[in-house]
Amino acid sequence: MLRGGVLPPSAGPAVVGAGHSAAESPSTAAAGGAGGGQQGAAAAGSAGHPLPGTGNSQACSSALRKPAISLADSTELRVLLSVMYLLVENIRVELETDPPEWKSCRETFRTELSFPMRSDEPFALLLFTMVTKFCSGHAPHFPMKKVLLLLWKVLLFTLGGFEALQMMKVRRREELGLPPLPEDSIQVMRSMRAASPPTCSIELAEQQQKRGHRSRRPLMKQDSLDIYNERDPFKNDETGVDEEEGDEVDGGIEGELDLMERDALLPTIPAQRPPIERVSFPKGLPWAPKVRDTETLIGLPRPIHESVKTLKQHKYVSISDVQIKNEEELEKCPMSLGEEEVQETPCEVLYRAMLYNLPQYMIALLKILLAAAPTSKAKTDSINILADVLPEEMPITVLQSMKLGIDVNRHKEIIVKSISALLLLLLKHFKLNHIYQLEYVSQHLVFANCIPLILKFFNQNIMSYITAKNSISVLDYPHCTVHELPELTAESLEAGDNNQFCWRNLFSCINLLRILNKLTKWKHSRTMMLVVFKSAPILKRALKVKQAMMQLYVLKLLKIQTKYLGRQWRKSNMKTMSAIYQKVRHRMNDDWAYGNDIDARPWDFQAEECTLRASIEAFNSRRYDKPQDSEFAPVDNCLQSVLGQRLELPEDFHYSYELWLEREVFSQPIRWEELLRYQ
């Protein structure tokens, strides 16, 4: 069985579009070369959708009658999904040496996956349906890890990664006549430096008591967080870490990541060298400032009062603002403006196919994410995500038990990685396609408790999670296919690999933080949810991971809620405030650093959420509702004609008909009085 899902240090967690393992990014040789990939593309295109066949229905019916599901129940499906995964990933990866014929085959394969060919739905929708069937209990034998990995790679291939998304965003702004972007956010984040984590107030008090001979110093001006500076402002008073992570010191992941970042920019430095002058770098902040409102001058310094021109020069109009304005005009003048011309992109096709079952898709993904979270406890009513990792016979030796334990933990980590990556891809692409598509997905994620779920995920020893070694390198693909397998021992399994970090888990953490940012950005009611669930100390602990991109999104989440945390919190966390100032984009007229709104409550902003929901429903109704579903269409009220209509039932319904009868008919009480009253 292929062991995919390990993110090598060379790839890094920079973007979702990057390859993450030898198993998930197989080399051309491993898949039979470029020619083999082309033949695979043609074979995949001619095969259609092979998963919901008769054999699968029989396996589903057999699995429903079993008390426990194991690997043997999904053998054929796992082989099919592995083959399709290798096909998609091998064809997806572009090389400069690809011949023109291979590029043409790649685009043909991309089109076949993106648009309905021999069915009424794109291939990604079939995989989403498999996820919902698994969560509903109709197909408990589905190998969810492989389904989710294939779904992620299909979305990555058909919609495009973050670099492709950035180019689409630039083209869309040109089409709308908007000024170009002030910077490339991907490049800015790649050049940012990680900062040392701030200490908590309890630690500072203890350290002050230990240093009784020193006088209490006032608040000092903070230096730059750049590694070239002589002092690190976060290390002035820091000697330890949080109480629940007392066994971890600065030397672990933080020191190693810091060394890796230094090595990326600096040549090899000898142990001893004569002192040289300090390298000077241009001062400035990494992000260009933005402003959304040029009508008010509240909070701006006096020089800007004298020259509003400076403010208007930084006015940023997003694609979303233009889309919202156009939608308002279409709602006001539907007859005069006519129908909107909608471009048939892969993202638009996918949203239209997902629209009416999208809440079920989001709930199913969050259910699996909850079951795979390391902080979740096993419950009898939770779904079984280990069906494709547990063997038929349980282990009987210590070595087998250790191997199974590593497999189970690794299995959960890969599921978290794939769900977080595909959710982030959907949110980013739907936002570019139309802002209300993003808002529709976001609302259903919020209604399904996605915000507390992500916070629960981070409410753990995040350093231990990122340094976890749930991998057996000699069994990883393609190592296991090109090398002889050594004899595994309990000592070798306990030692793990030589990697200091698990990039797979770091990748998942960054994705979840970005999803949380997408859900809460410019939404006061959702920001208040962060405050109510006491996310500030949870997020501050995540700053201990010295990785610049992860720290950036943690600081963004802290920035949007500082005005609700009060002046005392800001006073006690000045180093965090300084890091926010230096690393997060500045919004003119934003009172995050001095505003106070500690009396606000979530229900104070419910009107905003209701207004947004009304706008989303109006958008979906105008663009996607069929004409016969309108209020002017005739309605058939005849009981005989309605009951006489022939309905097309899915093929697997016949195999689960008895289960459906038991659940929907026999177990439901019949209220005869109400039935007779309507006769």
TrEMBL record:
SMART domains per the UniProt record, alphabetical: DUF3402, N1221
Biological process (GO), any one: cytoskeleton organization
Skewed-composition ranges (Basic and acidic residues): 229-238
UniProt cross-references to Pfam families, sorted A to Z: DUF3402, N1221
Domain of life: Eukaryota
Domain Far11/STRP C-terminal span(s) in chain numbering: 301-657
Region annotation (Disordered) ranges: 1-59, 229-249
InterPro entries reported in the protein's UniProt record: Far11/STRP, Far11/STRP_C, Far11/STRP_N
Residue ranges of every copy of the Far11/STRP N-terminal domain listed in the record: 12-224
One GO CC term on file: cytosol
Stretches with biased composition (Acidic residues): 239-249
Protein family per UniProt: Belongs to the STRIP family.
Protein name listed in UniProt: Striatin interacting protein 2
Species: Meleagris gallopavo
Organismal lineage: Eukaryota, Metazoa, Chordata, Craniata, Vertebrata
